# Entry
Amino acid sequence: MRLQFWQRLPVSLQALAIQLLVAPITWLLWLEFRQVLPPTSLQWIVLVTLQGILAALLSVSMRLPWWWWWIQLLFWPALLAGLMIPALVTWAPFILLALLLIFGGVFRDRVPLFLSSQPTLQTLQSILAVRPKARVIDIGCGTGRVTCALQRQLPGLQITGVERALLPFALAWLRSHFTRPRPTIELGSLWDCHLGNYDVVYAYLSPGPMPRLWQKVCTEMAEGSLFISNTFEVPGVAADQVITVDDWNQSKLFIWQIRHDRQGK
# Structure
């Protein structure tokens, strides 16, 4: 039960809990060895480095995603270095506000801002060309680039983009006003969207929400509809088709056609 509770926490909260757990251990170790260090800023450098190392090691043991290992390792050294730069200290509140506006959904949904490449967009266009009047939703549409481009290229689509982070949503909403025909851009969570209203669901999220999203897909989407995930697979569920995109990252589009006999609806 405790392990299940831990796994349900957003990764950001897991990382914070690890930092808080490691902090008293770091402090005790530092009290033991600080006498051998000169009373200068070197003590603080050793302290934050030790905190980062311990937090990173515990993050590895707790199976946090690999990029969080580096965040845990470098967070305190980077913060200390930033405090030594007066300009960064002055602008810190504005930087924090901008990060919250751009990446506000990370804390709740574990979904950072990813931008689909131009080759990916062209591949999506070819997939949707055989469904020219489909109802399409781009969940986590970011700045609306994919949503608006597909609407321009395939004007028969009924396409909706949903974004939770405020600044990307504002950019997507503004971009939609210059797109003809105009797509629908909504501010909200992907979890509040009823996927049964759409023939095609496109997602470019992260590994974290994929198991829960797959449950939502199987529960709500109609027979024969398509679920397309950019880069991130559904754990333990083989895609019906995998398309490798010729971009810098060799991105993959994982495509599932919903069949309720297979999904167990």
Q: What stands out?
A: DSSP finds ten helices and seven strands in the chain.
